[in-house]
Amino acid sequence: MWPGAIVTPQNTLVPSFLLDDIFFGVPTRLQAGVNYGNTLSCIRTVYRRESVFGFFKGMSFPLASIAVYNSVVFGVFSNTQRFLSQHHCRDPEASRSRTLSDLLLASMVAGVVSVGLGAPVDLIKIRLQMQTQPFREANLALKPRAVALGKQPVYQGPVHCIATIVRTEGLAGMYRGVGAMLLRDVPGYCLYFIPYVFLNDWITPEACTGPNPCAVWLAGGMAGAISWGTATPMDVVKSRLQADGVYLNKYKGVLDCISQSYQKEGLKVFFRGITVNAVRGFPMSAAMFLGYELSLQAIRGDHTVTNP
User: Fold this and answer.
1) What is the residue-level pLDDT of the chain in tens, covering all 308 positions?
2) Eight-class DSSP state of 268
3) How many other C-beta atoms are found inside a 10 Å radius of the C-beta of residue 146?
4) What is the torsional sign of CA 283, 287, 305, 3?
5) What are phi and psi of 303, to 5 degrees?
6) Residue 294 burial by CB count (10 A; 0-12/13-18/19+): exposed, middle or buried?
7) Where are the Solcar repeats (predicted)?
């Protein structure tokens, strides 16, 4: 099911990204913001303060890179998995078999690569979204002078945000929260690709030699819901670390963020946004896998997708 091509047409990825971006600002604010009672309260507050455009804040930079990001991640997984399969057995027919260990290792490699590409993109998006968080409410213990600094947005746009971070924090600042992102994405992609492969094989009728749209859609959606739901605890930590630094630095690292969050808000804080994550994960991933499989089928000009 996984061809070796890395090319993925951008027009198949943009709709799923737009769907993702509508929901992305909600869990980010729930996880890293304050005074949002629940999901509906967060949606109402964002809409009241920033109108509908608030849900798309920070979208331009990720939109420009989403095609490359997903193409590389999907390509790394498929080619790594193919390499491992062929390494075990050089017989072309035998190399078609897939083992759990091969899928696991390929998913982990894809997760590591995704962090290298996605950490700066996530950082910019979260910084642009969280700078609209009411500064006085978020930092009641600060002195009046520090509070006054938060009256105006720190960043005027993605380019200014990048320049400001590099100037004040160095290039390493673009990878703030990378440790938490690794802890989220490496197991997250294992629970993304592996359930998809097995669910798709299980659902697809035996007589079908190519990708079955219904099976791909359902398997992709279920895999996305599983992956995003289980990734929520580390997603909370990642969001807080990346939002940290807009006005001040609160956390010293992953363990400090976990410790402070638990001491102040209890265990439930690590499950903030889990419903939104799981709900958005289904349609987003269903559209992603379906667009990927069908676009590759169209590019190949045939009706079969060869297993690695």
Assistant:
1) 333 333 343 444 444 444 554 455 566 666 666 566 666 666 676 667 666 666 666 566 666 667 788 889 998 998 998 888 887 665 554 445 678 999 999 999 999 999 999 999 889 888 887 776 654 444 444 443 344 444 567 788 888 889 999 998 899 999 999 999 999 999 999 999 999 999 999 998 877 777 788 999 999 999 999 999 999 999 999 989 998 877 678 898 999 999 999 999 899 989 988 888 888 889 989 998 998 888 878 877 654 444 44
2) G
3) 13
4) negative
5) -120, 20
6) middle
7) 1-83, 98-202, 211-298
CA dihedral for 4, 10, 15, 21, sign (positive or negative):
positive
Residue 50 amino acid letter: E
Two structure tokens written together for 136: 């006085």
159: Cα separation from own chain's centroid: 21
Q: Where are the alpha helices (DSSP H) in 33-148?
A: 39-50, 60-88, 100-130, 135-138, 144-148
Retrieve residue 300's tokens: 């190949």
Cα–Cα distance between 11 and 31 in angstroms, integer? 31
Question: CA 163, 67, 103, 213: dihedral to nearest 10 degrees?
Answer: 150
Residue 41 neighbours by CB distance under 10 Å? 12
Q: Measured between alpha carbons, how far is 239 from 133 in angstroms, rounded to an integer?
A: 14
Hey, how many other C-beta atoms are within 10 angstroms of the C-beta on 60? 14
d(CA 188, CA 182): 9
Q: Answer yes or no: pTM beyond 0.90.
A: no
The one-letter amino acid at 64: A
Type of residue numbered 276: V
Identify each DSSP E strand in the chain by its residue range: none
What type of residue is 173? G
The answer for residues whose C-beta is within 8 angstroms of residue 274's C-beta and 6 or more apart is 229, 232
- Token digits of residue 63: 């939109």
